[in-house]
Amino acid sequence: MTAAALPSAPPRSRRRWKQPSILPGFPLAMGWTLTWLGLIVVLPLTALILRPWELGVGGVWATLTEPRVLAALRLSFGAAALAALTNLPLGLLVAWTLTRYEFPGRRIVDAIVDLPFALPTAVAGIALTALYAPTGPLGAPLAAAGIQVAYTPVGIYLALMFIGLPFVVRTVQPVLQDLDREVEEAAQTLGATHLQRFALVILPAVLPALISGFSLAFARAVGEYGSVIFIAGNMPLKSEIAPLLIVIKLEQYDYAGAAAVGLAMLVISFGALLAVNGLQLLLARRGRA
Amino acid sequence: MNFRPADDTSAATALEIKGVSKAFGRFPALKSVSLQAREREFLALLGPSGSGKTTLLRVLAGLETPDSGEVRFGGEDFLALPVRRRRVGMVFQHYALFRHMTVAQNIAFGLTVRKAAERPSKSEIADRVNNLLQLVQLEGLDKRYPSQLSGGQRQRVALARALAIEPRMLLLDEPFGALDAQVRRELRRWLRELHDRAGVTTVFVTHDQEEALDLADRVAILKDGELVQLGTPNEVYENPADPFVFDFLGQTCRMPGVVAQGRLQVADWVSEAPAGAPQGAVEVFFRPDEVSFGAPDAPGLLAQVKGVAQRGPDVRIDCRVGEADVEFQAHGPTLPQGVGAGRSVRVLPLRPQVYAA
Questions:
Q1: I need a surface site. Which of A77, A182, A267, B185 has the fewest CB within 10 A?
Q2: Which residues in chain B have Cβ-Cβ distances shorter than 8 Å to A182?
Q3: ipTM for the complex?
């Protein structure tokens, strides 16, 4: 069956790719958006995507399957995911306390939440190291109890929690603030216990925000460098994170190798964020389709 | 107007509120309010904003704790019960539906949160939900989310959700406040029918006098946290306890007058003072449409007609009575001859209320 045998379709006006709008300036706005995104985001990433293939497919594969690289990637993504997950309940609790209760100094506590944003990450790393080093005020008793924090993956996890917390708090807080109290009261009059109110009414309402907070904290933690390298100890195969490995490769003039590790991080991060966004979309559609 | 026969006084008292006071900081929201509601009664709490009506309703639900006073339901101390054990169905002005749940899940909520031992089976819950959907006329919408419903439909879901727990008392906080006039009137009738069928004591908060008079068996009028009057719609409309109630229940004409020796004088109109009228300087209140018009030699207030304006079925008659401008109302077809701009007429208030000035 060929196209010619089909009855000819009635002439159709060309499909418009953009609905007409009363808002002026679409070509200009779209043009700038694309130019800017291209220059700032796409161009460097393209370079990153192209660079490793100098090594050939086999070379890239060899670089990425090095035990040291694999261990670093596992540690970076594992610690970042674990830290972001831990930040979910903690961040929710902080946001809850800040929105639900009136107490003296609430504004100060509210401001402290933002400190990990503002602090240079290296400063945070040095402070954490000083605290948790085996001789530090917190590290010493912990070491006595047989727990070593600094210079181990536990230290990395701690540093990533520190930098990720504000992301969860700041995404959840406005949602909690806007939560209609009457909805909780309705649940209460219908016989729901505290726990049921939290699990069935509040949690579903803040879940999309929690997921956003998670992906932000996770993305930030994966790329975190400054605060981690001080406390990590950076022992290959044990406490060496992938960003550090990239720097090491750069210092050894292994640009293609560094780019290969970078590309791997990019792909994994992108995949993870895509999955998280998909989950969020699914949840959002449930409520307001 | 409400022409329902006076309610059955033999019904037992269900709800008893005694001396309930509540203050928010320094602001007294309720000042020693006492009232009762009978079993299956439809009681309206009517008042302007800030009168404490919503606070009183929330005290009944358990969402506010009064500073003092007593609330009993069916003889039981209601204040000793936590909210979730009171089994009251509460309907909020802004519906307060669970946005992430379907209509069916919303309605079933009060049943699904029960302890396993008290929870009906899945099929029983589904049956109950279906019956309620039928009752609120939303069959087939069970799988929708609240965002896919109109305001009136959402409020009916909220009502079905409240009824699902077979409440001992139904509490409605301005349930039609966010809806437009047409939907309001429809839902009002429907709610009354629903109440009569469900047979549950209902307390309804509104600031709309028309709604309260139309719906309720009895109306409690609150002002500044105090109960001003409690009675059937006809009682409160025909015998408002004070100028505030008179003014709040409808349009008002007020004129100064004097009561002496059993005679009431308002401007140049002298009549027999109503029984129990205060002596001396008084204020005379009457409704602008409860007047009859007569020739200049008939009894009544002498009025110079300044203008007659037809507005749909109603006619507005602007007059000058003595030193004051007064606006009367009449129904178009019943407007008597001889009332026209520039004419002098006598206006006789049919049911004047006299309050001490």
A1: A267
A2: 92, 94, 96
A3: 0.84
